[in-house]
Fold:
Amino acid sequence: MRFDQTWIRLRAWLQQPVTRQAGVAFLAGAMAMWGLPPDPNPVWTVLGLAIWLRLLDGQSARQGAWLGFFFGWGHFLPGLAWLWTSLHEFGKIPSVVVVVMIVGLAAILALYPALSGAVLARFVVRRALLPWAAPPVWVVTEWLRAHLFSGFPWNLLGYVWDNGGPILQTADLGGVYLLSGLTLFLAGLLSRLLRIDPWRQWQQVVVLVVIGMGCLALASGYGVWRQQEIREQLARSEAPTLRVAMVQGNIGQAVKWDPQRQSDWLNRYLDLSSSLDQPVDLVVWPETAAAFFLQYSPKNLDLILELTRSLHIPVLTGAPMADRDDRNEFRYFNSMVLIGPDEIGELRHRYDKHHLVPFGEYMPFRALLPDSVQKLTHGAKDFSSGPGPALLPTDLGAFGPLICYEVIFPDEVRQLATLGARWLVNLTNDGWFGESAKPQHLAMARMRAVENRLSMIRVANSGISASFDPLGRELARIPSNVMAAIVVEVPSGIGHTIWSRYGHLGIGLWSGWALGIVGIGYVQRRSDVTLYENNHIDFRMDLA
Structure:
């Protein structure tokens, strides 16, 4: 009897319009995710967003929040599938718990689209304003997602334009957030088209199509012009081109930290580097390629120094570092270290990762947790955070160092550009994650190059290693799960874009725009209420 009653209630709930709308919103979110890397296609993302925006018509703030939540849930859930590898295969967390964690994280991230849905449903009274209201509201919530609670700006909507087209070049104006806004604007126009009768209201159809095509033409025109201008700047530039050897060891994550095979893995990087048959300026190894503490491994450090002296060039590598603090206790860092042929056992150029991965590199609220609760990655102790974004000075020029997912934070990379970086270098180990995460992470690295007009050198433990010029053009690549060393010529960056100089003001502009929309919606709603009340009073007077 209880089962029958439960089924009847469930069927009644499924038949409710709001339930069907939530299901459509969930599928629309998944469709929007389909347009993101590894196969970026703005059409799918714009269509998914347009369906969601269409669902917001006539909804209350509460209903809009729920529709936004289900859209976000459907959007983030498939985009986080790669966490299965990190949590289950390497973290040894039971599969049921991992599913709950991924579903829960997607639900937490869905709170940001829920906020967008609530604001749009509540304050966009005139649906004709939706194409103009959706971009700033969404971008503000994306910015919040990139900064609150350590931030997690994975798969921002602007990455749908990572297809090599000229529209990607507009990122140097407003970063990936500008491309997200463009995507929402097009989706808003399409949602209006889905709402009107094309035969009776064909004039509106023409206007909306012309606006949309004009917007795309304007963005494409700027991109084509900017591409030509930067090509000419690179051709005229007297700055020397950097010849870089990217070395990808392709060492399995399950055996990478095995102390008995430590020498084998180091020898692999030494052999790959010494096999280079052409002169280079710098050899780059990936994150924690040196899987040992350099300060306390003199024999291994001597081997690396011997390589640099034989090649007469420095090696830039990732390595864990251990320093003693004032209390003579060890602090551990995930670092990037330059080891040069002129250095006699001393590590002079070093960058410590400052934006650490929660649960992966440290446990949040560590003071409240027992010592038995450890982070998911190798090692019992948490990493400490470095002082912040800082250049890595070398005789070749200043590098903007980025370790692992630091490259996904647009504002932090922008700070490196303003400090005077000539190149960006990203050492990473995507072996922790599934294959689907690798092209997504790569697309974010490319975007940082375009935003700041700086070449990007990205070297990964098991791939994908690649380098990009200031236009985002791929210069070289080592595919995933391949052991190789290749040499690439990387031009010095142009730098000094509108984004790199004034990007910190961007969120103020987006927020002001969003507040203006909210203000207009508030005034319109109040005027509608007043008009209704006046008409209602007149009607009662007529009856009297």
